[in-house]
Amino acid sequence: MTTPMSTAAGSATELIERVRALAPLSDADLARATGTTDEVAGAWREGRGEPRDWQLVRLQELHDVVALAADVVKADTIALWLREPIPRLHDRVALDVIAGGEHEEVLAVMDELRHGAFS
User: Fold this and answer.
1) Is there a contact between 27 and 38 (Cβ–Cβ < 8 Å)?
2) Per-chain mean pLDDT for the chain
3) pTM assigned to the model
4) Cα separation, 33 vs 31, whole angstroms
């Protein structure tokens, strides 16, 4: 059985709180980015469980993407952007790219936006 790892930030619940303080992400969004169900993501949020190590990594990666996005766009736009197919990601949804362990691609697109590469 895999034991949950802790992040420098603390528990999954704390990490989810930090993500949601930056953008209005739903349990479904958290689930999609971590490869679980809405119910399980909700349990993590409520402190009724902890993700597996690899899921905690995905949560941290989601946080990293959302934190960068918060410097670029409005909070309510972040959630929409994460849910829609993005041409620069070959029409993949950012949450799915994060779930696949490729959050660096999402960070690169967001960084391009931050530096005005699409203007």
Assistant:
1) yes
2) 90
3) 0.88
4) 5
CA distance 19 to 31: 13
> What is the rounded distance in angstroms from the CA atom of residue 79 to the CA atom of residue 39?
19
Q: CB of 79 within 8 A of CB of 24?
A: yes
Cα dist from 29 to 59, 74, 77, 86, 112, whole Å? 11, 17, 14, 16, 23
- 80: tokens are 């929409």
Which amino acid is it at 33?
A
Q: Taking CA 24 as the corner, what is the angle to CA 38 and CA 107, rounded to the nearest 5 degrees?
A: 90
pLDDT tens digits along 103-115: 999 999 999 988 8
